[in-house]
């Protein structure tokens, strides 16, 4: 058993008969009253996100996990296939476990957290950013640049991203996997 002082991002806990991963947390010590911890929890079975507040010193049930590097192979319906980089063992994971499945490109390395008690995969940590090629972008309209104008673009994985007007088909762009937003154009 651990307490609220051990809470950190990425920690997997057992809560309300389900397994949750802590996405974000905030220790709050008000001027009046006891301290508490606000958390945002993501269910690793259903993918639902909920907000919860733990009082300071509250005991939490931490799940022991191991992290392994897996390479993304291919999608098949709602299942995504991965291969362990060390043992070459293949696993398939449901789409709702992944944070940004539409930004996964074949060959991308991800970190998979596995429950040590049951040997079942719990969550997939994507790289912080991915570089993808733009396959379709509407032409930018000249004179439409008064303030940070953006347009829709489709990348090679099929995801739709808002990009600045100067991005064209064939350009490679860097995308933040946490928010799914455009970061910068990549020159090679």
Automatic annotation (TrEMBL):
The organism's place on the tree of life at top rank: Bacteria
NCBIfam families associated with the record: efp (TIGR00038), PRK00529.1 (NF001810)
Q: In which pathway does it act?
A: Protein biosynthesis; polypeptide chain elongation
Protein name in the entry: Elongation factor P
Q: Where is it chiefly localized?
A: cytoplasm
Where does it reside?
Cytoplasm
Q: What does this protein do?
A: Involved in peptide bond synthesis. Stimulates efficient translation and peptide-bond synthesis on native or reconstituted 70S ribosomes in vitro. Probably functions indirectly by altering the affinity of the ribosome for aminoacyl-tRNA, thus increasing their reactivity as acceptors for peptidyl transferase.
Translation elongation factor P/YeiP central domain location is 67-122
Keywords, ordered alphabetically? Cytoplasm, Elongation factor, Protein biosynthesis
Gene symbol here is efp
Q: Please give the coiled-coil regions recorded for this protein.
A: none
Domain (Elongation factor P C-terminal): residue spans on this chain: 130-185
UniProt keyword NADP, yes or no: no
Looking at the keywords, is Cytoplasm present? yes
Q: Name one GO molecular function term.
A: translation elongation factor activity
- Give the originating organism: Flavobacterium artemisiae
HAMAP family listed in its UniProt record: EF_P (MF_00141)
> Into which family does the record put it?
Belongs to the elongation factor P family.
